[in-house]
Queue: 2 jobs
Job 1
Amino acid sequence: MNNSKAQKLKKKVKNHIPKDWLTEIRIVYRMLVEIFNDFRRTGWINLAIITTMTAILTLFGALLRTTLSVSTFAHELGNVLEISVYLKSNADANIVSERIKEFNHVDKVRIITKEKSWNDLKRELDINDIENPLPDTLHVKVDKPTNTNEVFEKIKALSVVEDMSYAQDLAKKIQVLNKVVNTTTVFVVIIVAILTITIINNTIQLVIQSRKEEIEIMRLMGVSNWYIRIPLIMQGALYGFVGGLIALVPVDIVQTMLNNIHKFFVVPSPVFAGNIVVISVLILGTAFGASGSFLSIKKHLQV
């Protein structure tokens, strides 16, 4: 009795489920089975591929995170750096200040009078019986570090300026380091792409060769081309995703070290840096893994 009711209920439920849903579910199930079987066929090679992918993506993730930190340091240093302008004795600091404010890229001008500078110096060195030798000084803040040289040259051309200074060498070194790290990161992305696609390409080629007869039978039976291709593409994408997932462990160690450096120098860490690195590593690994599979299919699988 109970079995009869169960059969009727099952039949009723089955009748209410659109057949195309059942077909799609079966197709997805069969694709998952094929992906698992392909992994089983490649055997120990899976470990070698994932290990290689992990090493490559770890290097990429570490460099990307370093790039974000170096860029932040360069930006913060540029915001802190000011151009010190020492005026001649006959110059009016207020007039010169207003003149400099009219220049492009000048964010702020702060006046340090020679009286204030002298009083501060006397408190530090305990000197009283000497005439004030200091000039009026202007501290000029530029909107962006890259515009510092342009503003520096404009101010230098003013006839009332006696001398000028700013940490030019330090600013240039930070900018050069920033460019080197950015260029290296781009170079590593290219290497990651080439190595990943090559490794996955060769692996999928082995899978295709091992399933050659099976694929030919499916093709003759009229099975959809994408039904044959998708499991292979998913296998490559899975290699990249798993490799990226494991790579996040050493990358997280690098992130912790960089965050400690930021705290030591009292420079805020890049906003969302951790999320950017995690997403980039996973997406890059998955995309290049899938691309390697797709290229192998185009070359070696005639469907």
Note: The longest strand covers residues 106-112.
Job 2
Amino acid sequence: MGIPQLDFNILYGCMLYPLAAVWCYHLIMMMVNGEIDMIEGVVGLGLTLFLAANVFVPMFPYGRHVSGFLLITAGITVPILKSYFNTRAHAKIDADILEKACLALEFDHQNWGAHIEIANQSYRLGLLEPAVAHLEAAVTMAPLYTTAEKNRLKLWKDEMDQIKPARALACPTCGHQNALTTVRCAQCNSMILPILVSGRWVSENMTAKVARVWGIVVIASAISLLALDRLSGTVALPIIFATMFASILFLARVLRHR
């Protein structure tokens, strides 16, 4: 008795359905967290189920392959992007803490406590050279009150001896070389350390934007392919062009909205 052949469509569905489930979970969590509203979430869930159904019973040309591509895009790419945006959000929190300490130092250049805060945050975030420079400044300003910091400074200097330390702090905005304890760039006036820590800040609703863009692409693809399959060329072509035009308008609106 021969080994029964496993149907390709069933195998394909078994591979894609977990991705659809992952995407549904993320859509539900975005609704719970208020990143997208209830209507957007329900539409997204409906589109996901529609694509999942197309894996077994295609409702438009190339439906199985298009649905598979869109489910893979959502089920794998979007969670990775969400994790990346969460990491950037944490970096923004660190940048906010550093910015407050930098503003305190700007207000009072003899604020050795602000120097210590900047040093500790910089060291924790891997910026060893400015950490050493700020801690050294704090110890110089308040030698009687910084006994623990003196010991820490010695350890950090020993650590810095193991590398080739930078002698200046490059501004991430304009590239100007500044002293290691500089708060703002002497050339462009940007606050250096917070930008170094956060990178270019990512909009907090970026994940929701990705979800909305995905939804627009799914709807536009389905309408265009259905029109191509069910209508004559003279009727289908204007509908496809109108769909693409409307999609571009919606995408521009989503990407422009903060």
Note: The first strand starts at residue 169 and ends at 170.
